[in-house]
Amino acid sequence: MDTSIFAALAEPSRLRIIELLREGPLTVGAIAIQTGLRQPQASKHLRVLSDAGLVEVQRDANKRYYKLRQEPFLEMEAWLESCRRVWDERFDRLDHYLKELQGKD
Amino acid sequence: MDTSIFAALAEPSRLRIIELLREGPLTVGAIAIQTGLRQPQASKHLRVLSDAGLVEVQRDANKRYYKLRQEPFLEMEAWLESCRRVWDERFDRLDHYLKELQGKD
DNA sequence: TTATAATATTCCCTTTACGGTATATTCCCT
DNA sequence: AGGGAATATACCGTAAAGGGAATATTATAA
Question: Can you provide one Gene Ontology molecular function annotated for this UniProt record (chains A, B) (predicted)?
Answer without folding.
Answer: DNA-binding transcription factor activity
